[in-house]
Amino acid sequence: MNLRFLIRWFFVIPMVLRGLGKLMLSLVGAGGRSGKWIAGLWVRLPHFVQNVLIGTLIAVAIHLGHGLGPVRATEDLAMDWMNRLPVDTRWLNDSKGQGYTLLDMDQASFDAWGEPFHVPRDPLAKLIRYATAGGARAIVVDVDLSRSGTDAAADQALAGLITGYPSQAPDLILLRTTRARAPGETGPLQWRGTFFDDRSLSDAVHFAHPRYVKDRSDLRLRRWHLIERGCLNGQPTALPSVQLLLDVLLRAGREGWREVQGRLAETGPHDCAAAEGGDHGGLDHLNYGDRSIRLDAHGVDQRVIYSYSNSPREGTVSPGLERISAAALLKHLPGASAEPVRGRIVIIGASYDASRDRHETPVGSMPGALVLLNATKSLNQFGQIHGPSTRSVLLTETGLILLMAWFFSRFASWWATLMTGSLIILILVPVSFWWFRYGVWIDLAAPILAMAVHQAFANPAMTRHRGSSGVRNPLN
Q1: Where are the domains of the chain?
Q2: What share of the chain is helix, strand, coil (3-state, %, to 5)?
Q3: What pLDDT is stored for residue 274 in this prediction?
Q4: Are 63 and 299 in contact (CB under 8 A)?
Q5: Once rounded to an integer, what is the mean pLDDT over residues 249-272?
Q6: Are 99 and 343 in contact (CB under 8 A)?
Q7: 401 vs 53, 59, 230, 428, 450, CA distance in Å?
Q8: Which tens digits make up the pLDDT trace of 381-391?
Q9: 59, 191, 206, 209: most buried by Cβ count inside 10 Å?
């Protein structure tokens, strides 16, 4: 685990908790007859039973406060670490699974095109045609098309390609962005239209949103919004995320997507002219194909598992991913091989610096198109991250509490902490890694936090303290 994680939970937090424990002891000692009664009752309990009770109270407190900042931040750090180790490896990426291709408008492409003000429409249209003719399974265009470009003829040609896109072609997903809000402005999100919204589209063309959640603490992008509700041209409009839309199309086809659209149409703000966003209709889950998705989740359920980083380690091969420079590909069209896109999900996006579409993630900085690709793979391969069954959690926690209580009753606090930490590293970490590849998260933060708290309250320096009551310290 990283150094900050270890320092925080093995040294800093126990020191703070020991201070709080000493304050609590002082309050108990100053409590007169009631304080003496509590201290006496506690003293009569065997040390092992005391530690079992302490461990049980800690476990209950952690469960009740699971959504609090410190606990959630610890869980995020543990999952970040878990995600960084296998990224870009065959262990996390099955080469026989769904393949992904990123047609990357990189810095070399940007320079070759003369550093244009926006993504040129002609190269974009050629990339779409290449992926379509090459037999891509689906195509995502991660380019803002809310405004016309500087070349009216190129705009019209791109609009003609999209509005004339045939139904039998691979699904084509376009993105809608939101209008920036003025300071203090409230109300529902306002979706931007495109320069071809006045034309009809085939059922192979879909719209999605590219919005994600950045944690305020470190601005890292860890979670997604599967559904965003807002208004388009004054009408309530709920949009799916790219990964949700693709997952529905892959598992249930366009018929399944039409059913999901019908459910989404029932949600959203009731009045787009209202000052506030309004009710979202109470939609808390979606069923499609063989999958049920929770929409009201806010914890690990919303986490993205990153399979690919922007800068793989030297010698690392990223199974299942093809990343091709747009400029290099365009030089070989129309005779370029279709193998890099056939049967694959194709993302067309920009990574050049001037695009200003870079984001910090648990596995490093990456362009928005690669975030979309990772999120799509995450939902498709792992589904929503979830924990083990309640029975398994209770059995595991009971075992850890009993074992931790025995360690702290038999050994000094420091040695007990060392042995408990070693147990977590030698047993829980490998088991967690194994289940992580199947989308199951075994929370390492809870036992580590419990160990830190237990160390603070079982510290020998505290347990030998004697208050003015004349009885042994109640934490002994």
Answers
A1: 3-84+387-463, 100-382
A2: 45, 15, 40
A3: 59
A4: no
A5: 85
A6: yes
A7: 9, 8, 47, 14, 9
A8: 999 988 777 77
A9: 209
Phi, psi dihedral angles at 7 (to 5 degrees): -60, -40
DSSP per-residue letters across 264-312: HHT-S-S-TTSSS----TT--EEEETTEEEESS--SGGGBPPP---SSP
Token digits for 330? 């365009």
Instruction: Give Cβ neighbours of residue 192 (< 8 Å, ≥ 6 apart).
Output: 146, 176, 177, 178, 179
Q: Indicate if the pLDDT at residue 51 is higher than 60.
A: yes
CB atoms inside a 10 Å sphere around CB 298:
11
C-alpha–C-alpha distance, residues 390 and 329, integer Å? 51
| Residue carrying the six token digits 């995320």 | 241
Whether cis (ω within 30° of 0) applies to the bond prior to 334 is yes
Compute the CA torsion angle 363, 368, 371, 373 (nearest 10 deg).
-140
The two tokens of residue 358 are 């870079």
Question: 239 near 209, Cβ under 8 Å?
Answer: yes
Tell whether the model's pLDDT for residue 186 goes beyond 70: yes
Higher pLDDT, 354 or 423: 354
Distance, CA of 283 to CA of 229 (rounded, Å): 11
What's the residue count for the chain?
476
DSSP assignment of 148-177: --S-HHHHHHHHHHHHT--TTSPEEEEE--
Question: What amino acid occupies position 264?
Answer: L
Stated as kind and residue range, the H or E segment containing 436 is helix 429-436
Q: Over the Cα atoms of the chain, what is R_g?
A: 28
177 touches 170 (CB < 8 A):
no
Sequence-ordered list of residues with C-beta below 8 angstroms from that of 77, at least 6 positions apart, any chain? 1, 2, 4, 5, 445
How far is it, in rounded angstroms, from Cα 438 to Cα 345? 21
Query: CB under 8 Å to 173, separation ≥6 — which residues?
Result: 138, 139, 140, 141, 206, 207, 208, 242, 245, 246
Least confident of 30-39, 393-402, 433-442, 465-474: 465-474
| Longest CA–CA separation in the chain, Å | 92
- How many Cβ atoms are within 10 Å of 400's Cβ, its own excluded? 21
Check: CB of residue 466 under 8 Å from CB of residue 472: yes
- Spatial separation of the C-alpha atoms in residues 216 and 224, rounded to whole Å: 14
Provide the CA 158 distance to its chain's centre, in angstroms: 34
Neighbours of 256 (CB within 10 A): 16
Distance between first and last Cα of the chain: 32
Return left, alpha or beta for 450; rule: phi > 0 is left, psi -120 to 50 is alpha, else beta: alpha
Q: Model pTM?
A: 0.80
More confident residue, 22 or 454: 454
Query: Would you state the pLDDT for residue 387?
Result: 77
* Residue type for position 415: W
